[in-house]
Design brief:
Elements (H helix, E strand, L loop, with lengths): L14 H17 L13 H13 L3 H9 L2 H4 L4 H8 L1 H13 L11 H20 L1 H16 L6 H21 L3 H15 L1 H35 L6 E6 L2 H9 L12 E6 L3 H14 L1 E2 L5 E2 L12 E6 L5 E7 L1 H9 L6 H12 L3 H6 L2 H15 L6 H12 L3 E5 L5 E5 L4 H8 L1 H5 L1 E6 L2 E3 L9 E7 L9 H4 L3 H13 L2 H16 L12 H11 L4 H10 L4 H8 L19 E7 L7 E3 L11 E5 L5 E5 L12 E8 L6 E10 L4 H11 L3 E9 L6 E10 L2 H15 L4 E5 L9
Parallel strand pairs: 2-6, 7-11, 13-15
Antiparallel strand pairs: 1-2, 3-5, 4-5, 5-6, 7-8, 9-10, 9-11, 12-16, 14-15, 14-16, 17-19, 17-20, 18-19
Helix pairs in contact: 1-3, 2-3, 2-8, 3-6, 3-8, 5-6, 6-7, 6-8, 7-8, 7-17, 7-18, 8-10, 9-10, 10-11, 11-12, 19-22, 23-25, 27-28
Bound molecules: manganese (II) ion (MN).
């Protein structure tokens, strides 16, 4: 017997709402009668779990009812009309919305064109539904959460697909809505199925570190409580908090394999009555524990785009142990866990509509940022002119599912851009005309290249010229879909003829890589396949599209020359293991000599704290070692030197490339982005062509497929014509 929802669970609803919810509970039970889940349990357990979680999130009664009925129309005899008759139009629209979303298919890359297109279509549906009524998405998220909890009953293929889709679509969506608790839960549930090996490893790592940290955290909590009391600050709660596994994993796999970040495993969270107290507590903490510079974050003055507010700091606590501390009010805490759901979300959306229509009262009630991103989502899905599904998918991933940064105009206006956005994106975010007339940019008062990614809190000033003069190269520089579409729109106005010519030049400049001189050298059949893939009637249409920038050169090459590796691969988390060379280094000063302390003999993956001795370099202790001198000014942030593990092959790669400023720097950047270790690099002038350089790279290559990708990119980006590769000390192979 499965217990029904009880009236007592519905405390905050009024009596008529309670009755409707209880009625819906019985209605759903009858509708699903006799059906079973894959687990063998009665089907009703699923909608009930969904509704129970929605109640916890603090949603309105209609949404709870929608949760109870979300599968009735799809899986039973019940119709939308029946739902409307019994529970009203709003509930019917919610159920209909969830039903229409169906399954949002996740497809890894363009393995098969059709499936990819259908997944884009589904994401488009998701966004459209969301822009109409956010409550549909909340039901969908609660639905996904429970499906993940019962994922063990599905076939392995389905497990993997659903898990990946949850990590790539649903968790970022929950995050963007500010639902921190749900996001963390979805991620941890999916992590185990998406990356089983990594999951086991991180779990083990966390467990072994946590058990050691427990007592320490208890003591530290007491110390902090005493400090606050002494300063007459009332604390509502102080508790030790464990970072969730997937976020630990992400930290570990983030660029440069920052293994030292594992000190973040435990954090202390202090909740105090009001904002003033928050800042006071921060002062008290910094007065008593030395903060790690660059790790102090004021999300109260500048909230994250999803509304998250809190103060964060990371300090050297007693014994030099590094601990993160978060300080916030109860209200901030509630919002951080449940996001906008903590308010009545539909009300917010109605307000946002009024706001757009210019209602001033609405303006004071809703934060501009929340409205803007709701609008952004709606706009992206509805007005999108993008006809290539791959491109659409890429745009969506970049705009919605990436971390955001804040930058300021010289007047102090705040702009919210995706991470990696450049001054050009900023220019277009201000106004299309400013974007098109951009000549240069000043970042924090200094002239900056237009393609250098902006950092959080940069102050950006755009230098404009009198007339619009965009450059096709800009399409490779901008990161936001809106800037890209504005640039494309401008080029679209240029004449067809000149576009065809430009398109031909662009394409032919690359063909040499594949041994063709002219477009006409490409076998007709091969060209036809590409044209069909894009739905272009003839070559000129393709060239025009290329010339006007409505299709990217790499996209065309990928279709035309199928051996070009897809770019998407690099968006995924790099597969790394947590191996170190066993050497220790000071973060930011890797050349300082480090010596392991003889008292605690640190070993990977211990968290490290360096102590600057008088005259003999840095002694590195295990974080928490009792022998660390209590001289905060002499403590340094240290880490294990990190390596890509697994067997690597030593390979010598030789080629000639067009010489230009920054060539070597760009090549090493490309190699490092492929997770290959550069053992040696040498360059000399080419004997035959003064404008070219001969380059020789010695690499440790973990994956020969990546090597192939590297070679293709060298050819495309650096004018490299042929590459010779040689396995060092083994048999030689040739890529040509
Ligand atoms: Mn369901």
């Amino acid at each position: 017997m499965v217990s029904r929802i009880q009236s007592e669970d519905l405390g905050r609803f009024d009596s008529s709402e309670k009755k409707r919810i209880l009625d819906a509970d019985i209605f759903a039970e009858e509708a699903h009668f006799g059906q079973k889940r894959k687990s063998g349990k009665p089907y009703i357990t699923h909608p009930r779990a969904v509704a129970t979680y929605l109640i916890e999130m603090g949603v309105d009664a209609d949404t709870v009812i929608g949760g109870l009925l979300h599968d009735t129309v799809e899986d039973t005899q019940v119709t939308v009309e029946q739902v409307e008759e019994k529970f009203g139009g709003d509930v019917a629209r919610l159920v209909d919305g969830v039903t229409k979303l169906g399954q949002v298919d996740y497809v890894e890359s363009d393995v098969s064109k059709d499936r990819h297109a259908s997944s884009v279509e589904n994401i488009r549906k998701l966004l459209l539904a969301m822009s109409k009524d956010m409550r549909v998405i909340m039901i969908k998220l609660a639905d996904r959460r429970h499906n993940l909890k019962t994922l063990n009953y599905l076939a392995p293929d389905d497990q993997k697909r659903i898990a990946m889709e949850s990590l790539e679509v649903f968790a970022p969506l929950a995050d963007r809505l500010g639902m921190g608790a749900l996001k963390a839960e979805i991620e941890d549930l999916a992590f185990e199925y998406a990356y089983p090996e990594e999951y086991k490893m991180v779990k083990k790592l966390v467990a072994s570190n946590l058990s050691a940290a427990q007592d320490y955290i208890e003591d530290l909590k007491k110390d902090i409580a005493t400090l606050l009391k002494k300063n007459e600050i009332e604390s509502i709660s102080i508790h030790g908090r464990q970072k969730h596994l997937y976020s630990v994993y992400k930290k570990l796999t983030k660029a440069e394999g920052d293994i030292n970040k594992i000190f973040d495993l435990m954090a202390i969270r202090i909740i105090v009555p009001n904002i003033q107290d928050c800042y006071q507590v921060l002062g008290i903490i910094h007065h008593n524990y030395k903060p790690l510079i660059y790790r102090i974050k004021d999300y109260i003055a500048i909230p994250k785009p999803n509304g998250y507010r809190s103060l964060h700091t990371t300090v050297f606590a007693s014994n030099g142990r590094i601990i993160e501390i978060q300080i916030r009010t109860p209200e901030m805490h509630k919002e951080a866990e449940h996001g906008m759901a903590a308010h009545s979300i539909y009300e917010l959306q109605k307000l946002s509509k009024k706001y757009r229509e210019g209602d001033t009262r609405a303006k004071s009630n809703v934060s501009k940022q929340k409205i803007e991103w709701i609008q952004e989502l709606a706009g992206l899905s509805a007005n999108s002119q993008v006809n290539s599904s791959t491109e659409m998918m890429d745009n969506l991933k970049i705009d919605l599912f990436k971390d955001r940064i804040f930058v300021f105009s010289p007047k102090g206006d705040l702009y919210d851009l995706p991470e990696g956005a450049t001054p050009l994106d900023f220019a277009f975010a201000i106004h299309t005309q400013i974007g098109l007339r951009t000549q240069g940019a000043r970042v924090n008062g200094r002239i900056s290249p237009l393609d250098r990614p902006l950092e959080n809190r940069d102050m950006v000033e755009i230098i404009t010229r009198k007339q619009p003069q965009p450059n096709r190269q800009w399409l490779n520089v901008v990161k936001t879909a809106s800037a890209r579409s504005k640039i494309k729109a401008w080029f679209r106005q240029a004449s067809r003829e000149s576009n065809v010519t430009t398109g031909r030049q662009l394409l032919e400049a690359q063909l040499i890589t594949w041994g063709y001189k002219k477009l006409e050298d490409i076998p007709t059949k091969q060209m036809r396949v590409a044209l069909d893939a894009f739905n272009y009637k003839d070559v000129d249409t393709l060239l025009q599209a290329l010339g006007e920038g409505s299709v990217a050169l790499t996209t065309v090459l990928r279709r035309l020359m199928p051996s070009l590796p897809t770019e998407q691969k690099k968006d995924r988390l790099p597969k790394t293991t947590l191996e170190t060379t066993g050497k220790m280094q000071v973060i930011g000063a890797p050349d300082l000599p480090c010596m392991p302390a003889t008292c605690c003999k640190p070993e990977p993956p211990d968290v490290l704290v360096g102590y600057v001795t008088r005259g003999s370099g840095v002694t590195v202790h295990k974080s928490g070692c009792a022998n660390i001198p209590s001289e905060p000014d002499r403590l340094l942030d240290c880490q294990w030197q990190y390596v890509n593990s697994g067997p690597t092959t030593p390979i010598k790669v030789e080629f000639t490339a067009d010489d230009r400023m920054g060539l070597v720097h760009d090549i090493t950047g490309l190699v490092l982005s492929k997770q290959m270790n550069i053992v040696d690099i040498s360059t000399r002038n080419d004997a035959e062509d003064v404008n070219r350089k001969q380059i020789s790279l010695s690499l440790d290559v973990p994956d020969m497929f990546e090597l192939n990708g590297l070679i293709q990119q060298l050819k495309i980006r650096f004018g490299v014509k042929s590459v010779s590769t040689q396995v060092v000390k083994k048999t030689s192979i040739n890529a040509e």
